[in-house]
Design a protein that fits this description.
Layout lengths: L8 H22 L2 H12 L3 H29 L1 H18 L6 H11 L5 H10 L4 H12 L4 H16 L1 H22 L4 H9 L6 H5 L5 H32 L3 H12 L1 H4 L1 H10 L2 H20 L3 E7 L2 E7 L3 H29 L4 H30 L4 H27 L37
Antiparallel strand pairs: 1-2
Helix pairs in contact: 1-6, 1-7, 1-8, 1-9, 2-3, 2-12, 3-4, 3-5, 3-6, 3-12, 3-18, 4-5, 4-6, 4-9, 6-7, 6-18, 7-15, 7-17, 8-9, 8-13, 12-13, 12-17, 12-18, 12-19, 13-17, 15-16, 15-17, 16-17, 16-19
């Protein structure tokens, strides 16, 4: 009997709901510097590069921790690991209020970043409750926890203006600690862990969980996620600063408009999971990269003054993306990024069903590193070039590279399976066409048939 057969719908729903809510709270804490970092930058007189480092430091910890947290989830179960992550993040977030120098802020930010590792835990935990044909939808719903970034952008500016950034940190620390307690008392161990304990089997070794990482396919998925998730996190952190610097908005308005990007990049992830189940994850990624490349190209164009030598003398005109078109373009970019995030993680339980934690962890690690590296690079590009749109120039290069690599990889796979090209599955493993397929018996010699004329 399949280990999922005796799971009730209520158990599945509870596991998914509580995991999603917990991830929302974790993500709100993880991106807190998008708001309070603006005030800290003023208080400490930081450069854009230093601000980018501060905003990205929690992302570094959250990213690097995803690999071992994913492995621990495979080995010991998501419930206990999830609670440990939230409790640790609560302590670090509260201690942030005692920092009084830039190095201490960076140290506290490193500790807070463990909240971002909750993603790898949740992916492994949630996927164990659902069959393959429903994992895309389930993981898409779980990924909606990214909306925690929007929660921070909506609420934190008002709390910070009224009571100071220290109160924001204290309230967010209390929220994630309460969530840890609620999660522990409202969830149960996943069915795979329960079955393994009943059988008295030991968990697989760390080396076994790491073995799939030698496949180039895993690193290709990681590049995809570096853009659809890493760039999402980077922009979620960077956009309030961008709105203040480029359009002269106050922090409340900048936070609200930043949320207009974060919300679609989070909420519609569930829709991306449904689409990946129905029309195929690869098709969703083609749309994601194509539209994202177009958006980044338009956003990358800097404000420019032109002078044309006309018949009756010079004709001057200017080009710049206004506030409304900019917000619309970032909304569209966030929407397609959300679809892409779900599509990437739809692949993992299908290609690597026994190593969701480790493979999902490394893909999440690389993606999360994008959220750490990119804000720093954005700030450095500002300092070096003096061009605000330089951040979107970089994003265009990244998405174009991912698009080309994916298309070349798909082309190679299609050539390998040319005889059955018309029936090539979107996820080849489902039909035994990919690297994890079982060996096929040699086909019997075909009998000659009369040719039609």
């Amino acid at each position: 009997m399949n280990h999922l057969d005796d799971i009730s719908p209520g158990q599945r729903t509870r596991a998914l709901t509580m995991s999603t809510v917990a991830f929302t709270v974790c993500f709100a804490v993880w991106t807190i510097f998008a708001i309070i970092g603006v005030q800290i930058k003023k208080d400490l007189g930081l450069t854009d590069t230093q601000f980018g480092l501060l905003a990205g430091t929690p992302i570094l910890t959250g990213s690097l921790s995803r690999l071992f947290l994913g492995i621990w989830t495979d080995q010991y179960g998501g419930r206990i690991v999830y609670v440990a992550v939230m409790a640790s993040a609560a302590v670090a977030t509260f201690l942030l209020t005692y920092a009084d120098s830039y190095p201490l802020f960076l140290l506290a930010a490193l500790g807070m970043g463990i909240a971002g590792g909750a993603f790898a835990v949740g992916v492994a935990y949630v996927s164990r409750w659902y069959p393959k044909e429903r994992q895309g939808t389930a993981l898409g719903i779980f990924g909606m926890g990214n909306v925690g970034a929007a929660v921070t952008k909506f609420a934190a500016p008002f709390v910070m203006v009224a009571y100071g950034w220290e109160t924001v940190a204290q309230v967010w620390a209390a929220a994630i600690l309460v969530m840890a307690a609620i999660f522990w008392f409202s969830t149960e161990d996943d069915p795979v862990l329960v079955r393994r304990r009943a059988a008295g089997a030991a968990p697989e070794s760390t080396a076994m969980h790491l073995s799939p990482l030698k496949n180039i396919q895993v690193w290709r998925f990681s590049l995809y996620y570096f853009f659809v998730f890493g760039a999402f996190v980077a922009l979620a952190l960077w956009l309030p600063r961008y709105y203040v610097g480029v359009y002269g908005l106050d922090i409340k308005t900048a936070g609200m408009l930043g949320a207009a990007y974060s919300i679609p990049a989070s909420v519609f992830r569930a829709f991306g999971g449904v689409l990946s189940d129905r029309i195929g994850a690869r098709r969703v990624l083609y749309w994601t990269f194509g539209v994202a490349a177009l958006c980044c190209f338009l956003l990358a164009y800097p404000a420019t003054d032109y002078v044309v030598q006309g018949i009756n003398g010079p004709i001057a005109f200017s080009f710049a993306i206004g506030l409304v078109p900019f917000t619309i373009l970032t909304f569209v970019l966030g929407f397609f990024m959300s679809l892409g995030k779900a599509a990437v993680y739809k692949h993992i339980p299908v290609y690597y069903p026994g190593n969701v934690g480790s493979v999902g962890g490394i893909v999440g690690l690389i993606g999360g590193l994008g959220g750490f590296v990119l804000p720093i690079v954005f700030g450095a590009l500002n300092d070096l070039t003096g061009i605000w749109t330089s951040c979107f120039m970089l994003l265009f290069l990244i998405v174009a590279t991912a698009f080309v690599w994916m298309h070349l990889a798909v082309g190679r796979m299609e050539r390998r399976h040319l005889p059955s090209l018309k029936n090539l599955p979107d996820l080849p493993e489902l039909d035994g066409a990919g690297q994890a397929a079982a060996p096929q018996k040699p086909a019997a010699p075909a009998r000659a048939v009369p040719q039609r004329t």
